[in-house]
Amino acid sequence: MRDAMRTVKVEKADGIAWTFLNRPEKRNAMSPTLHFEMDAVLAELETDPEVRCVVITGAGQAFSAGQDLKEFFRELDGKPAETKRATEAANRWRWDRLYNYDKPTIAMVNGFCVGGAFMQLMACDFAVAAEDATFSLSEINWGIIPGGLVARVMTEALGYRDALDLCLTGRSFDGKEAARLRLVNEAVPPDALRDRTTALARLLMSKDPEAYRATKIAVRRVRSMSFEQAYDYLGAKMEELRQRTGGRAQRDGIAQFVDEKAYKPVQGSFTH
Ligand code: ACO
Known about the structure:
The protein is α/β, with parallel strands linked by helices. 47% of the residues lie in helices and 16% in strands. The strands form 2 sheets. A 6-stranded mixed β-sheet has the order 1-2-3-5-7-10, with helices on both faces. Strands 4-6-8-9 form a 4-stranded mixed β-sheet. Helix 1 runs parallel beside helix 3. The mean pLDDT is 96.
């Protein structure tokens, strides 16, 4: 499959899969082909034993200029079957897969991040942006609403006033403002972006992978639960983690601290 890919490029190094939306001449606008390829690539990387962290980024000057206005909107117009297939793939990789991904994920925003690209931005566990990246919810500027789940995740990620501001004005803003709004974890000078992302990926890969997976799913699921439901759910999730690892994580984590005095949990992860 890899050889046939036209719109996605993956470079693997030291456990990290650097996954590039790869249509730089179109600012990585997302065509149906790109959605099908990203969907297949993410499924493959999730079970690839060489890969312990996935970074989503863009080739050239853009993270992604959003949906391809020509290939995704105009050329699919009036073709319900093709529209359904492309929309399902688009939503599956940008949200369902990434939001529930078994491995750590980081969005590395290297340039334009527009409209539909906010889906993968917000679905990743972490986001790091170049200070000079350009963000915009441009939908209103060409006459549609922030669809998919974009309007929904904006109201979740931002205060109400900021969500309305960005959705209703379509104004562009830079990486520094994105960090201030907490759309990204941090913004760094462009020439530090790759190193900072690598350091973050290494930190995430140092965690026990089963504990990492269970923690992120737990945090995401409890957001919409009552306290009573969350008590029950987290108790069951803890038991599930114990079952999946045979108690390994807890046993080794405690032994390395209490008996071997090999590490301190406040300062870093046990060795797994
Ligand atoms: N869909 C289709 N083609 C696009 C898109 C897009 N979203 N974004 C860029 N392109 C194409 C341009 O048409 C151009 O093609 P051409 O070389 O055949 O003329 C090429 O990519 C380069 O784009 P330029 O506009 O020339 O590049 P520039 O760096 O000056 O501007 C920018 C980049 C600001 C991203 C601009 O292209 C733009 O505003 N794009 C539209 C972004 C957008 O609104 N996306 C939709 C969001 S809504 C949604 O996703 C649901």
